[in-house]
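User: quick one
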Amino acid sequence: MTSKRPAALTGSYVLLGVLVVLALLGPSLAPRLFADATTGARFLAGARGTVVAATLVMAFATGIGLLTGALAALGSPFVDTLLSRAVEIAGALPSLIVVVVLRAAAPALGLVAIGAVLAVLRTLGNAKTVRASVLDLSREDFALAARALGSGRFRLFRTHVLPHVVGPVLSNAAFTAAAVVALDAALSFCGLGGHGDTWGALLADAAHARSAGGVIVPTLGVLAIVAPLQVIAEHLSARVSAGRRFV
Amino acid sequence: MLREALRRFLWLGPTLFGLTIPMFWLLARSTDSGVIASERLPLFVNRAPRGVRERALDALDRLGSGLPEDPSQPSLAYLGGAALPHVLPRLDTLAPDVRGGVALALTPIAVRMGIGSPSDFESKNAAVLFFSRFWQEHSIDFKPAVVRRAVRRFAEHPSSLRRAEVVELDTFALPDLIDGMRPLRSSEDVARARHLAEVAAHVTSLPWVVPADASPAGARRIVRQWEIWWIDHRHDYVAFTGTGRLAATLLETRYGRWLEQMARRGLGTLKDGRPVLTALARGAPTTLSLLGAAWFIGYPLALLAGLVASLRYRGAADLAVLAAALAVAAAGTVGLVLFVGGLRGSVLGAALVMALGAAAEASLSVRAAHLRLLELPDVRTARAFGASPSRIAFRNAKRVVPLLVAESLADFPGFATAAFVVERAFSLHGLGEVTIVAARSGDLGFLMALALVSVLAVGAAQIFADLILVAFDPRVTLRATRERVRS
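Assistant: Done. Structure below.
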């Protein structure tokens, strides 16, 4: 099992690299490789927007989510209460409607509106996960031992708790990319805008036309983002748990 | 924990109220008109609320300066009897020619009140003389207490004489006429509402009268129309003075009117005039059934898949669950809709899409959580003593359930979106249909109501979920856990 890990990991990094190249060159390659309005052309043309939006949302949700969750668990009760209320409020609004409203308020936003809404929702979700994990892990023997040796709360988090939390958070991040495309597709499908050259719009058009082939291409594109991230998350989690098993 | 739950439940009210302000601001910016009629009203604070007094004086000024009639401003005839206490006492202070013009402008009111015929107002002088005498004799009648008594007497014991007495007050009696239409429970109440609505329709020229054979429900519909109209047009007939003026700075705004409609009329009305509550109640069963499919089929499926995957870590079953979950998440609801296209039109297909969508991400969360549980000393000891994987999974399942409950609530925004897509794809008539129409047409009232109901429902469900967590694991008390971490 251990010998398989680096190969899968290397493959994941390569796949992510290919995606980056696709995002950089896709729109300029599309007219050279495909005739206008074919699925392939639209897929390449939409690569940049989709990959960039997904990456930004993932980075924001992971970074800020980690920070907020840690502050809620280890900081003042005020931050904790604020996070709980924010999760309650943001967690109750259908994302479709929030995006529509945001777009109507600022029509130029386009895919950015989807990104903004998902960034907030995913950040809060991650923060809640991190908070729960920190509270849980802080009761573990290794955490208590670190406290007994004089570790402060934030050192405890950085050195002992964070490695255990990164895996699940990264796993969530993998699904964030899928969520960006899924929400874009839902908007297009419901006729609430979003008819651009994005993978979501491509997916919605294929669903309207009942074209299985049209659905498979953007689905594979999303899978190419989600799967490598999941493999990396798996690797990070396994590394930590292997260490704990030996202890 | 119960005290904590109660405290959080009580906080839902202020949270909801606080939430409405930024939401209203954003929605008002993004919607074109909405159910609130006067777009020119300020959004949140009206520093100079304009009641009937200001409107009547404006009309006087326009007449005095000889400006042409402005169709966007209410005329004296429209303001009716409510304008008389502000116009007639000033009649003597006006220039003779203006005075005559004003008196002639008041002619339609006198005709409507049944106190004069067009022949009484043939010249400006005759009109001025008529209204001067009228005010000398009847100014005492234009007092709130007098009007209240007149309307009450007419409502309790209607007669043509008492009707004439109320009609003579014209729009000045509207607040009491509309107030007097409620309650509506018995046939006597319907008769009372019929008489009052008839007078209100006469003074406003609106068509909403209660038919003689109306049932209490039918009468309620008519009265509701009057009440909704009153919220939007009250400022044309009521003078804002004293504390009423203070209240008007907040209520005579778009937000204030929406809040009033929400509070008084069951979440307000749609753009087409239907009550929001009715639209929500009609669509909710379908949408809730879809959400139920996600929660009660998807999550048990996720629990099963996650447990199997973790017990067969890096085996074929684990890889199959991983691959399936990632593929379903990548396809999204729209992609899934196409793949179960053969079931289009069936409730089973819709439920399947919802369940698979919910199970995808949750199964991997269960897998991760269970992998962690498998490393705990008690589980490792049990395995060492020969406990079978299925026994371990069964015992650990209840330790994973709280995580699933929390996740299921956190996923509500995504589920709601998925439900809207599924409703559209499978031609189901749920909340998605009316919500999409509202979003397209910028129906501020419905979107606000939907958001508030969602926040309230999910907030309450989250508190309930926390109570379930305690039931599953009595060691869980939020405060105790936090204190332990900090100590």
